[in-house]
Design a protein that fits this description.
92 residues
Length: 92
Amino acid sequence: CFSAIYISCSGGKGKSGNMDEAMGLWKQNCALCHGNDGRLGINGAKDLRLSELELEARMEVISNGKGKMIGFKNSLTPDEIKSLAQFTFSFK
């Protein structure tokens, strides 16, 4: 029952589809500085394994940038930003 609700709310992609999409977005937009595992640290990029930010705060940083990091609110949709923010929790 939960799976059917989750799939219907996620546009029919299910959990792995969202994770694959987020991983693609990560590689395209974030991996250059943060690396594939969130800890590369190029240009002062934070080690995301150590982040204690909640989802909303992560979405804010992705949207508006912070420090040398550019914001992505003009190039990614709100759903893509949320997917990326959720994806960063996988580095823990």
